Amino acid sequence: MEVFDSPEAARAFVSALRSQGRTVGFVPTMGALHEGHLSLVKTALSCDAAVASIFVNPTQFGPNEDLDKYPRTLTADLEKLKSAGVAAVFVPTRDQMYPDGFSSGVEPPRISETLEGVCRPGHFRGVVTVVLKLLNALPVSHAYFGKKDYQQWRVIEAMVRDLNVGTRIIGCETVREADGLAMSSRNRYLSDEERSRALLISKTLQHVETAYRAGERQTAILQNHMQQMLLGENIGHRDTATPETSPGRRLDTLQYASIVSSYDFTPLATIDRPAVALIAGMIGTTRLIDNRELGQTDV
Ligand code: AMP
Questions:
Q1: Active site residue 37
Q2: Pocket flag, ligand 1, residue 149 (CB < 6 Å)
Q3: Which atom of ligand 1 is nearest to the CA of 144?
Q4: Got the DSSP string for the chain?
Q5: For every one of its 299 residues, what pLDDT tens digit does the chain have, with 9 covering 90 and above?
Q6: pTM higher than the cut 0.85
Q7: Whose CA is nearest to atom 10 of ligand 1?
Q8: How far is the CA of 14 from the centre of ligand 1 (A)?
């Protein structure tokens, strides 16, 4: 497995494969790799070759976020990628990505303006800028993103479409722990007590999906159930389908629990098209997100 730190070397490697007519699948990551990342790699291996990147991108972290304590496990990550069959990994330094004098940036698409975009100002500008830089350094045929970061996947799809980037963007299913917790590099911050409370997020999404399958289409009712489950409070509506929650077992802060159109993230009063339920909140000092698609979305 090749390891490159310069964009030029990475580009030469990918360009050589592409000029032989081979497809190249790319998995961008921030490292601290887990089975979720490796499932993207496995999917990328359906191309003739798979490449990955590891770069903790400073421009997508807010001033009060966890950039400095973000887990860094480079040696183990490279081992995992090698065993998985990755042909090359791009591991640039901060200076290689943002040398002195760097001042450009990509204006993120409109879909970035809600939910994560509101909670994390500047985050998506950092994401689309680094992803475009990575796709320029590695001119791959396919790039794979996790639906775990659902809005990020849609934002990148829109950026690539809007800016005529010649890479196909593919969203991959979220990999979960056996008990339903979505795998995340940030899960390692959780104490046992926090981890058991974090399960409330996937349980709430399961409840929403069950209610949706049973025929509930009113977003306000479903969102209200989500808030009740996550905060253990009775907000507004109560009906027989209202879930029970135990006091003390809840999120510390709920940032959003929303259902929106899965394509353009517009709010929906009634779920009459493919939708996605999304949750973001804090457990202690750890920020967690998760989501569940509702209805047919593979268009
Ligand atoms: P990150 O290292 O957190 O930037 O994630 C790199 C890629 O892995 C992104 O496309 C994420 O959406 C994806 N990813 C992270 N966690 C999971 C998961 N549990 N299942 C599937 N993909 C994931």
A1: yes
A2: yes
A3: 10
A4: -EEE-SHHHHHHHHHHHHHTT--EEEEEE-S---HHHHHHHHHHTTSSEEEEEE---GGGS-TTSSTTTS---HHHHHHHHHHHT-SEEE---HHHHS-TT----PPPPGGGGSTHHHHSTTHHHHHHHHHHHHHHHS--SEEEEEGGGHHHHHHHHHHHHHTT---EEEEEPPPB-TTSPBP-GGGGG--HHHHHHHHHHHHHHHHHHHHHHTT--BHHHHHHHHHHHHH----S---TTPPP--TT-S-SEEEEEEEEETTT--B-SB--S-EEEEEEEEETTEEEEEEEEES----
A5: 999 999 999 999 999 999 999 999 999 999 999 999 999 999 999 999 999 999 999 999 999 999 999 999 999 999 999 999 999 999 999 999 999 999 999 999 999 999 999 999 999 999 999 999 999 999 999 999 999 999 999 999 999 999 999 999 999 999 999 999 999 999 999 999 999 999 999 999 999 999 999 999 999 999 999 999 999 864 444 444 445 445 457 999 999 999 999 999 999 999 999 999 999 999 999 999 999 999 875 44
A6: yes
A7: 145
A8: 22
Give yes or no for residue 278 CB within 6 A of ligand 1: no
Q: Which domains can be identified in the chain, with CATH numbers?
A: 2-172 (3.40.50.620), 185-294 (3.30.1300.10)
